[in-house]
Fold this sequence. Notes:
Layout: H1 4-29, E1 38-41, E2 51-56, E3 72-81, E4 91-97, H2 101-109, E5 123-125, E6 130-131, E7 135-138, E8 144-152, E9 161-169, E10 175-176, E11 184-192, E12 197-200, E13 204-208, E14 220-227, E15 230-234, E16 249-256, E17 263-269, E18 278-280, E19 284-292, E20 299-315, E21 324-339, H3 345-348
Parallel strand pairs: 1-10, 2-11, 5-9
Antiparallel strand pairs: 1-3, 3-8, 4-7, 4-9, 6-8, 9-11, 12-14, 12-21, 13-21, 14-15, 15-16, 16-17, 17-19, 18-20, 19-20, 20-21
Amino acid sequence: MISKSIKNYLLAATVCCGFAAAMTSCNDEWKDEQYEKYISFKAPLNDNGVTAVYVPYSRHNDDGSLTYGQGISHYDLPVIVAGSTRNESNLTVHVGHSDTLQTLNYERFGSPTYRADITDLYYKDMQQFASYPETMQINSGEDVGLLRIKFDFNNIDMVEKWVLPIEIKPDGSYQAHPRKNYAKAMLRVYPYNDYSGNYSATTLTITNADDPDNATGMETARGYVVDDNTIFFYMGNIDESRVDRRHYKVFFRFTPTNEEGNQGTVELYTDNGDKNLFQNKGTATYRVYEQIDEVRPYLLHHYIIISGIDYDYTDYTSVADYPMAYTVKGILTLERQLNTQIPNEDQAIEW
């Protein structure tokens, strides 16, 4: 007959063994994959349903020489293998063009049946300016691969709101991420040069000829790429929300006057000669200076200041048969913040 003390000992031992076995089982479970190994892009969408991507207009090597040629560049889009454990397979991921851009345009801007000219606000497919391989490789032991997208920006007109829609195509060896937009990328591509970007326009005044005593201003004005040395703005307070914006481009061509390239002249002109649209009255110049951040010494503030802006333009499309004349005068200032700890130039700019 087993004594009470022996029974208690055996019970305690059984409980301890069972607890240890349970703990071992739990620990083994953590070695297993907790999620499906879905394939997705790293391209989070903003409020407008697209991902802003900044790409040099011309890609340069470290020595300053052109990598491909004038107006030729590339962007590496991360492709991710999801999961809680490391990818142990060699994956060939298929990518291709997505047909979701029309749906996005309807959702964001409305149908042409509502307003015929609404399509001038639509995002426009830029696949004619882009190329990429139909497949890419993610090797065993790696969770991220890079899809190299090559761009030819020559003759691109940034009056259009260019978007490159691509998606991960299905394949039996993997599963594209089922969550909405994870397996699709809607890349709103902004090529940039040394002078493009969002300028502060608080010191730029806009005066209506019918009310010359009441000048107005703007917070910002975006300069869009034309080529390596030229950008364009929309005249006055016109921006890309106008369906008639293509009539009101004013080009700024930068010409350095010293070897360092940190100062020079800016030629203002337009490609629209209708309706006595534009008259340049000033002699614009620019200068560049840089300043280290006082709090974050790794951060470099790069400024471009355009002075002497002075031109007249006529808005002849806002109100039918009622042209309105304006004068624009003042200064535009661009600031770029560069993280000097990052050697890659386009990744170093804090957009």
